[in-house]
């Protein structure tokens, strides 16, 4: 089982009945939902980093509506194809756990989910009892080197050095990105001029080999409150103008097209080394 490390001193944390404790005496309480908050004050860039309670609730409602089920299915299929015998899975930027809980069930492996948003991991821990949920930063993953054989990054920040460190020899890293033509109808409503910007679909990461890159595109129709829920789970939520928000508020039915890129990377064992967080 992967060892969780103390974010203060880097020593192993031992799970007790209601807390985690390291040999140096640093303690971290288990919340009643079952998650642990390892995000220290010096790792925060705001009072409440990450997604808010309202954003998490919106994403939860949207995902439970099944609109992005094709994405979950595609990721599960990739996990089966490239890491069928995975024993331990880490989801970096896990949100409320929708994707990684399904992958873990598919592979019958141990699940660890990490997110900087306490609200996100609180929900994940309450909803998915098959996981170990941690509030922490992806910039310093609180795990020993070579701990996982499968890692997920779903529309989340990628830290290749840390990913390489915590993956085992020949471990696999699945990355899902929004393609440049993702949700173009939504963009056309909330922005005065919707520009389709080209973006790197399969970035090169030091220490990793790209095994596969594939595009998934599908149509979806969103109605009522789910229109606002969709906005709240995208980066556009932070950028939208007052005028754009008003136009979307008047939109009762949205017919759009989701377009994502799934990249499959494998760790190159000859690159780098490290054991500390």
Can you describe this structure?
The structure is a single chain. By secondary structure, the chain is α/β, with parallel strands linked by helices. Helices cover 27% and strands 27% of the residues. The chain contains 8 helices and 11 strands. Strands 4-7-6-5-8-9-11-10 form an 8-stranded mixed sheet, with helices on both faces. Strands 1-2-3 form a 3-stranded antiparallel sheet, with no helix packed on it. α1 packs across α7 and α2 runs parallel beside α3. It is globular and about 55 Å long. The model is unreliable at 273-277 (pLDDT under 50).
Taking the sheet with the most strands, its summary is: 8 strands, mixed
| Low-confidence segments | 273-277
Record the strand order, biggest sheet.
Answer: 4-7-6-5-8-9-11-10
Secondary-structure-based class equals: alpha/beta
Beta-strand content: 25-35%
For the termini, the CA-CA separation is 18 Å
Counted beta strands: 11
Residue-averaged pLDDT: 92
Helix proportion range: 25-40%
């Amino acid at each position: 089982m992967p060892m969780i490390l103390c974010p203060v001193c880097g020593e192993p944390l031992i799970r007790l009945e209601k807390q985690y404790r390291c040999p140096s005496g640093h303690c971290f309480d288990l919340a009643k939902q079952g998650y642990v908050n390892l995000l220290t004050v010096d790792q925060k860039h705001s009072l409440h980093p990450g997604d808010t309670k309202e954003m998490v609730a919106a994403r939860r409602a949207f995902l439970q509506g099944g609109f992005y089920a094709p994405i979950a299915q595609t990721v599960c299929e990739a996990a089966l194809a490239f890491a069928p015998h995975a024993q331990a899975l880490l989801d970096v930027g896990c949100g409320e756990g929708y994707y990684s809980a399904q992958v873990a069930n598919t592979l019958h492996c141990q699940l660890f989910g990490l997110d900087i948003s306490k609200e996100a991991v609180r929900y994940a821990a309450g909803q998915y009892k098959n996981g170990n949920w941690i509030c922490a930063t992806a910039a310093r993953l609180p795990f020993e080197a070579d701990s996982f054989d499968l890692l997920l990054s779903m529309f989340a920040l990628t830290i290749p050095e840390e990913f390489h460190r915590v993956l085992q020899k020949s471990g696999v890293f699945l990355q899902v990105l929004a393609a440049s033509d993702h949700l173009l109808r939504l963009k056309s409503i909330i922005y005065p001029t919707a520009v389709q910007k080209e973006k790197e679909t399969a970035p090169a990461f030091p220490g990793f080999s790209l095994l596969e890159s594939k595009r998934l595109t599908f149509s979806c129709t969103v109605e009522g409150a789910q229109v606002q829920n969709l906005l709240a789970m995208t980066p556009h939520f932070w950028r939208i103008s007052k005028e754009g928000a008003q136009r979307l508020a008047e939109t009762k039915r949205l017919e759009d097209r989701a377009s994502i890129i799934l990249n499959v990377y494998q760790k190159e064992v000859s690159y780098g080394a490290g054991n500390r967080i």
